[in-house]
């Protein structure tokens, strides 16, 4: 069992006529998701430049908890309910946090806007 926190980014791209319906569907899964075992946070965003893109950003105690979420009834029902409203495949991305040891920062090379590790 993995003990590493998983950060997820789920991008949903919808057809112009379906923005309100999909917004309501996605907003409807926020509270049930936040109550799931292993959910650390779960938030919904709408792209300011493209009102047809919604993004769910969450953090999970481990990969298993995130997988359980993707199989949950409320997630699957919302996904199924909006299948005719999406303009392209929903993108589900998983990230792990890479924490560097601040005491070693002096030993790294800086490029001016980022640190090369």
UniProtKB/TrEMBL annotation:
Transmembrane segments: none annotated. Residues 6-94 form the ABM domain. It comes from the Eukaryota. InterPro entries: ABM_dom (IPR007138), AI-2_Isomerase_LsrG (IPR050744), Dimeric_a/b-barrel (IPR011008). Gene3D superfamilies: 3.30.70.100. GO terms for molecular function: catalytic activity. This is ABM domain-containing protein. It comes from Adineta ricciae (Rotifer). The lineage of its organism: Eukaryota, Metazoa, Spiralia, Gnathifera, Rotifera.
